[in-house]
Amino acid sequence: MTKRLDGKTALVTGGSRGIGAAIAKRLAADGAKVAITYSKGADAAASVVKEIESAGGKAIAIQANATDPKAVQAAVDKVVSTLGKLDVLVNNAGTAIPKKFEETTLEELDQVINLNIRGVFIATQAALKQMNNDGRIISIGSCVGERMLTPGLVPYSATKSAIRMFTQGLSREVGDRGITVNNVQPGPIDTELNPANGDWAVPQKAATALNRYGKVQEVAALVAFVASPEASYITGANLTVDGGTNA
Fold this sequence. Notes:
Elements: E1 9-12, H1 18-29, E2 33-38, H2 42-54, E3 59-63, H3 69-83, E4 88-91, H4 106-130, E5 136-140, H5 154-174, E6 180-186, H6 201-207, H7 216-227, E7 238-241
Parallel strand pairs: 1-2, 1-4, 2-3, 4-5, 5-6, 6-7
């Protein structure tokens, strides 16, 4: 039986844990060869690769800080040299530093901007030079990039709003190559960084229509669909998977 991503090669940035790891596993389950990058946590990255391989898939992990242009370019080159080509880029690496804006240090602001905006720019530029026609660029934004309900995420929401416009603008530049560019915007998803039983969980859960946190697999399912040939007419779109947070 053929799978919908058979013959495709994908790169997931920040793919060693959380949403990124779930996306990598799902793309592999759907038939893609998958590369993940990670900045630290080699063991976590290795375990994602091992899980994919034990299920019969092909995966590699590449150590690369998402804010380092040379490292990211080298990672993209390695994907092509090792796995043969690049069809799908998932810009997943990102961070949030929850606190009041006026208490946030300049270093913390720089960290969020460098990873969430500049990092997406760097990876996308590197990938576009290598990407096949009919490729896929998928960024992991956030529902707070569209509607802000949670205090303490001011810089983060601003960076995710930037990703929305980046997605819309870039889709018009690469459409003639059949490359689609989309932004998947999760709501509250149960991960190490935002656990469903954490201090910040009560208002986030209350803001959803379904009155629960989402699972990483629920985000991965949408990413896998957008990466597939079935989604070839979806581009420049901001797609929320947020349990109705922004409803």
